[in-house]
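quick one before i forget lol
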Amino acid sequence: MPAPVPTTRLADYPSIFVASLCIGAFGAVLGLTYPLLSLLLAERGFSPLFIGTNAAVMGIGIALSTISLSSLTARLQAGRVLIVCLIACGTIAVGFHLSQGAVSWFVLRIALGYVVNNIFVLLEVWVNSVSSDRIRGRAISAFTMSLTVGFAIGPLGVALREIHPAFYHSS
């Protein structure tokens, strides 16, 4: 009996492109969010210790995401989880703007850590799953480069805050 002929899966270039664009936009939002949230907290009179602690608790959300993501995607499917997390990310951003209480900022930061980690992992898995073995390294490199460029561009939004302060009004 002849040996089975291995099949070669073709890469889904449009999906790789879309996932890379998504992670680039996501990186830009994260690059803006980190300094902007600290500035908003400082404007509201919170201490540097509070601001640093608030930024650090995001890791709790990331850890919780790591623990729960596989069971969550098994129950709801990865695409649905991704969409819910993207919507949740926007909702959390509005929550930061509207919230005045210290405790709520901690809860929002933990929630933000949870959803951003889910978004990152699911997009990276998407790129891996639609890449053929032959181009997987290049696809992940493009994905990572897009994230990095987005993350580097994000802080430029803080400069817009100086140009258009009404857009970022914190109260």
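fyi The two ends are 75 Å apart (CA to CA).
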